[in-house]
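Data card: per-record layout.
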Amino acid sequence: MASFDFSAEIKDLRSIYASIVAVSDLEGIKCALEDLSQQASAPELWDDPEHAQRVTSALSHKQAELNRLTSLASRIDDVEVMVELAQTEDESSAEDLLAEAEAECKELRKKLDELEVLVLLSGEYDQREAVVTIRSGAGGVDAADFAEMLLRMYLRWAEKNGYPTKVLDTSYAEEAGLKSVTFEVNAPYAFGRLSVEAGTHRLVRISPFDNQGRRQTSFAAVEVIPLIEQTDALEIPESEIKVDVFRSSGPGGQSVNTTDSAVRMTHIPTGIVVSMQNEKSQIQNRAAALRVLQSRLLMLHQEQEDAKKKELAGDIKASWGDQMRSYVLHPYQMVKDLRTGYEEGNTSSVLDGGLNRFIEEGIRWRASGRRVNEG
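The structure for this 375-residue chain is written out next.
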């Protein structure tokens, strides 16, 4: 245990913790907690169940945020006490204490790394829940199958992290896989985390649909938008919306609904189209479609504002490339993020939802780009 420098490690942990606290706005968190607690204790809170759910969820999240910050400080103090105590124990007991202290130091560093990433999520909509759409691209049936693989990957990622999800719309391809799918991830900071997943994903493998066993490259696009709240919902005049209704369908065109409950909503001025068919009634599908349409228009407005700012600043470089990640299953196994350079050889783990490191590296990469642009 002598090879592990506890003094330097504890000093470094305290330094990292101090830098996180400096940008975490502890007072702001406490004020938000007080305000949310008052709202949660209001007798009429559950008169509006949706509003009540948002308040209680926000309260739980803020409390967890404060607990994370305060508990880490206590844990660093405990490690220091453990190391000091080891100096007064016999050799056997001291070794056990130092082994425990070393393991705790490693766990604390991991927790601080996770918290550091969370602190970097400071964008205007980063705290929001997310709406994710996956569309198959070039590559025929392999691309449709790849879109379905990505859907499973993200749903497994959400499940592993304890984030509820809800599939809103599914468009099945003729032979296999998906043309497109839209789903919600209902957790705080889901948009901030998943927004770094937006872009074009590429798959290279031996095609299971090619009877000659040839290698195939296929593509799928991932779009991530924040779920809007009532306070920032855009008012869309009825005259600007075209609504078509149709019957929901399952794989291969199999009917799963005998009524015209599915809704296709088109925003006439922009041409944005949103389809919803996974709710039980036309009214529910219409409400879900309108919410997603409002979210997309909100992001379109922000993109237009950002484009104007870049034009005024003379910045003609795109901050995000089209192709952002490659999944190579043949002739070797590798998943590589082309922006951050981060890669993993265990493709099965990644496709089973092991995305946290990719997302964390993406958030750090994006934050470093923001700092350069602001500088």
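Known properties of this structure: The chain has three domains: 6-120, 130-230+314-374, 238-310. The longest strand covers residues 215-226.

See the next section for split statistics.
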